[in-house]
Amino acid sequence: MNFNSKPVSVLLVDDDEINNFISIKLIKKALLNTDIMACLNGRFAIDELLEIQKKDPTKLPDYILLDINMPIMNGWEFLDEYTRLGVDPLGKSKIFIISSSVFSNDINKARSYPLVKDFISKPLNVEKIVELFKVEDPA
Known about the structure:
alpha/beta, Rossmann fold
């Protein structure tokens, strides 16, 4: 399966800058044609997404990789605000929780959100990324 045909846009929402740096490197290694944006908390991500939505909703990211534990606005608050504001009326973005949490209540809570496609444990690696995009690729 070739993932390089059309560019894939990814929004990474995680407060750990080192983790973001590594995740971006891994995603670019797994998917050659990728446009990646990173936000350090849910509030910045919501503001960024609303900006994109105002200009052109078709430019919303294909994937949102969302951490749970962040300052200012955590992953759960992000999901609630994202839903409340109707950020993605076309349902373009696929949201994955990416977390180091091993608590089953976090995993179950993530699965209780219809918007969340899956819960992925950190650390990310190329195999997890390839799997994540392969499962969701409609081609």
